[in-house]
Amino acid sequence: MSVCSVQAASSEWETFYNESVRSYQRGNYTKSSELAMEALKVARKSYGPNSTQISDSLNELALSYVAMGRYLEAESLYIRALNINREIYGKKSPEVATLLNNLGGLFNSQGNFKKAEEYYRKALSIAEDTMGTQHPDVATVLNNLAGIYRQQGKYINAEPLYRRAVAIKESFLGSSHVHVAIAKSNLAGIYKEEYKYVRAEELYKEALEIYRKNYSANHPHIATTLNNLAGLYRAQQRYKEAEQLFHQALAIRKNMLGENNISVSNINYNLGGLYIAWGKYDLALKKQKEALKIRRKILGYEHIEVASVYLALGNNFHTTGDYKSAIKNYENTLEIFQLIDLPYNIDYAVLCDKLADSYDKAGKDKKAEKVRTRAENIRKDLKK
Fold it and tell me: CA 29 to CA 257: how far, in whole Å?
C-alpha cells in the first residue's frame, strides 16, 4: 500500500471512529454503533486482523451494544479487543485495563456482580501499576468498583472509593468536567442510601449543572441525574417533585433510545415505585407492566431484573387485595430466583413470607404452610 493510500485509510478510519465516539457521548447509540461498524470495516481492510484500529473499533461498537442491551454481542467484541490489546501491548498495560474495566461494566449490566467485581479489580490493579494511583483512569475504575458494592448494599465499602474518585478527578480535570459530575452523582447515591439527604441533593444538583453546561438537554447523563434526584425526592416523600423529574427523564430516554430500552424500563419501574408510595396503585400497575414488557423482551425471563418487576407487581396486587394475581407474580419471582441459582438471603425468606400470606388470603392453607416452612428454614440456614 502506498503512503498516500495509508494516509487515506487512516483519515477514513479516524473519521468513522471519532464520529462514533461523539455519537456515543451524545447518547445516540444506534448511530454510534453504525459508525463503529464502518470504522471496523475500514480497519479490517487497511490494517489487518490485529491492529489498534481493530481493537478500538471493536471496543467502541461493544460500548454501544451494551447501552442498547445487546449484551452477548458486546461480550464477544470486548473479548476479541482484549486479546488484540494483550498481543500488542502485553498483559499489563492501560489499554488492557480499559478493556477489563469495560467487561466489568458489561457483567454489571447483566446483574453478574461477582464477575463484574473480578474484572474491575483486575483493571484497577493494572491501572494503578501502569499509571499511578492518582490517575483519572484509576478514578474511573474506582467509581465502577464502588458501584458494585453499592448495588449489593455494601455502602461502607463503596463510600471511600467514591470519595477517592471525586478527589482524583477534580484534581486532574477541574470542577466542571463531566467525569467529575459522574463521580459526584455516584457519591450522592451513597449519601441517599445513608439517609444524608441534604448532602445528596447538593451533589445531584451540582452534577446536573455540570452536565447541562457540557451537553444538550436530551443527553442520557441528564436523564440519569434527573431520575436519581427524583428517587431522592421520593425517599423524602416529595412525591409531586419526584413525579415531574421522573417524567422529564423518561421523555429524554424515549426521545434518544426509543420505547424498548432498559433505561426506559428502569424509569417506568421507578415511577411504579413512586405511585405505590403515593397510594396511586392503578398508575403503578400500568408503569410496572410497561417495565416488565421491556425487560422480558431484552433480558429474557431468567434475569434478576425481571424478577424484581414480578416482585413489585406481586406487592401491588397483594396490597390491593388481588391475591390470585399476587400469587402468580410471587411464584414467578421465586421461580426466577431458583433458575438463576440466587443464593439464599433475607430477601428470599421475605418473598416466601409474602407468598405464604397471599396463599392464606386466597384460602390455600396447605401451600401457605409449605412456603412458610421454607422461609423458616432459609432463616435458620442464614444463621449458621
Answer: 8
pLDDT single digits (tens) 250-271 = 999 999 888 898 999 999 999 9
Evaluate whether residue 227 is within a structural domain: no
CB 81 within 8 A of CB 59: yes
Same domain, 108 and 71: no
Domain assignment of residue 121, given as a range: 91-214
Dihedral through CA 254, CA 255, CA 261, CA 267, nearest 10?
Answer: -40
User: pTM for the complete prediction?
Assistant: 0.68
Q: How many domains does the chain have?
A: 3
- Answer whether residue 141 shows pLDDT above 90: yes
Task: Kindly state whether residues 169 and 77 are assigned to the same domain.
Answer: no
Domain boundary among 54, 89, 124: 89
Q: Nearest-CA neighbor of 62 among 77, 81, 46, 40?
A: 77
